[in-house]
Amino acid sequence: MLTNSETEQQVAEFLLQIKAIKLQPTNPFTWASGWKSPIYCDNRITLSHPTIRTYIRQQLTSAIQEKFGSVGCIAGVATAGIPQGALVAQEMGLPFIYVRAKAKEHGTGSLIEGEISPGQRVVVIEDLISTGKSSLQAVKALRDAGYTVAGLAAIFSYGFDIAEENFKEAKCPFITLSNYNALLKYAEEHQYISAADTDVLKQWRTQPSTWGQ
């Protein structure tokens, strides 16, 4: 079995290899929030690569079993967490549900799609953690519906302090397969970026909301 460090580096390698993560310190991206960023992450691209998709599914499953023990259901966060969650649920032989960003405006008006018994112990699946806001909205929706949320698992985290604080306040433990520090380590060692680029990327992580302004 791989150590956590080995998993972090392998996932970082995969994400860079298929350009699910792009690093552009001199030509930053603009996020939907308006933040300027030298990094862009789209883990949905992993779904188009069967070997990588399988590795992520297996590692998420192992991490969930190790961290959270026995669970009764997997819940995906719409939209990017839905396919990842469904893959993990299939691997674990568990029911799958997903949580919408907001309730349907027609039909049943559902916020949670799928059917499991109240009181079930659920692990939430996300593809990416930035501030944790959307993830924790899903956690709250599940708790409000009567489910016990054991925690959350994701592929990658930017490692923002605000995310740590938000999850702590919500009393929701979380795990990720890889993270920003592991990514920078791998990217510099394998010449995706220079030492100067690494400094810029580290600076951004300390003040992401005002960086580049």
UniProtKB/TrEMBL annotation:
Entry GO MF terms: orotate phosphoribosyltransferase activity
Domain Phosphoribosyltransferase residue range list: 64-168
InterPro entries named among the record's database cross-references: OPRT, Or_phspho_trans_dom, PRTase-like, PRTase_dom
Reactions catalysed, as given in the entry: orotidine 5'-phosphate + diphosphate = orotate + 5-phospho-alpha-D-ribose 1-diphosphate
EC number(s) stated in the UniProt entry for this protein: 2.4.2.10
Listed pathway(s): Pyrimidine metabolism; UMP biosynthesis via de novo pathway; UMP from orotate: step 1/2
Cofactor(s) required, per the database record: Mg(2+)
Record keywords: Glycosyltransferase, Magnesium, Pyrimidine biosynthesis, Transferase
Residues the entry annotates as binding 5-phospho-alpha-D-ribose 1-diphosphate: 100, 104, 106, 126-134
Ligand binding (orotate): 130
UniProt family annotation: Belongs to the purine/pyrimidine phosphoribosyltransferase family. PyrE subfamily.
Biological function: Catalyzes the transfer of a ribosyl phosphate group from 5-phosphoribose 1-diphosphate to orotate, leading to the formation of orotidine monophosphate (OMP).
Oligomer status and interactors: Homodimer.
PANTHER family referenced in this protein's UniProt entry, alphabetically: OROTATE PHOSPHORIBOSYLTRANSFERASE, URIDINE 5'-MONOPHOSPHATE SYNTHASE
Annotated protein name in UniProt: Orotate phosphoribosyltransferase
Gene source species: Mucilaginibacter rigui
Gene designation: pyrE
